[in-house]
Design goal:
Layout (H helix, E strand, L loop, with lengths): L2 E4 L9 E6 L8 H10 L1 H8 L9 E5 L7 E6 L10 H19 L3 E4 L11 H17 L6 E6 L2 H11 L2
Parallel strand pairs: 1-6, 2-4, 2-5, 5-6
Antiparallel strand pairs: 3-4
Length: about 170
């Protein structure tokens, strides 16, 4: 079961924080911009060498100046009404993050609410997908033992509480 928190994901002392990135991985607004600012210029330099990331996949970099040792960047789908595979692509973000985390032997992760900001994915739907995929990954075993979803505002936190059932 994921823990829920209200706050700033860049302050989380976990093995890896998850970045809701865009396909370039070169920074942007929202969570992505905050992570890049907090991590410092080394993160941008490292991301330039990766060459981007398709929607639904994930890539890993060092955490640079963050408390987290790693950043796992995943690219969520832009909401287009639900008829373009957005839900499955969002689920793939979580699966891709857990695949990398387990491959690296990471024990703790902090997720933001992927795709619910400028990508306009409805937070009630996104939170249900997130909780389902996090539970499935934790139930499947692997190295990850602790997951926190860090919500930026009260409305997002309320949606995740409903999805978790608390």
């Amino acid at each position: 079961m994921p823990r829920l928190a209200l706050g700033d994901i860049t302050k989380q002392a976990v093995d890896a924080i998850v970045n809701a990135a865009n396909e370039t991985l070169l920074g942007g607004g929202g969570v992505d911009g905050a992570i890049h600012r907090a991590a410092g210029p080394g993160l941008l330099e490292e991301c330039r060498g990766i060459g981007g990331c398709p929607t639904g996949e994930a890539r890993i970099t060092r955490g640079h100046r963050l408390p987290a040792k790693w950043v796992i960047h995943t690219v969520g789908p832009v909401w287009g009404g639900g008829g373009r595979g957005e839900e499955e692509r969002l689920a793939n973000c979580y699966r891709s993050v857990f695949a990398i985390a387990n491959e690296r032997g990471l024990k703790s992760l902090a997720f933001p609410s992927i795709s619910t900001g400028v990508y306009r994915f409805p937070v009630d739907r996104a939170s249900r997908i997130a909780v389902r995929e996090i539970r499935a990954a934790l139930d499947a075993g692997g190295s990850v033992e602790d997951v926190v979803v860090v919500c930026f505002d009260e409305g997002t936190l309320a949606a995740y509480r409903a999805a978790v059932g608390v």
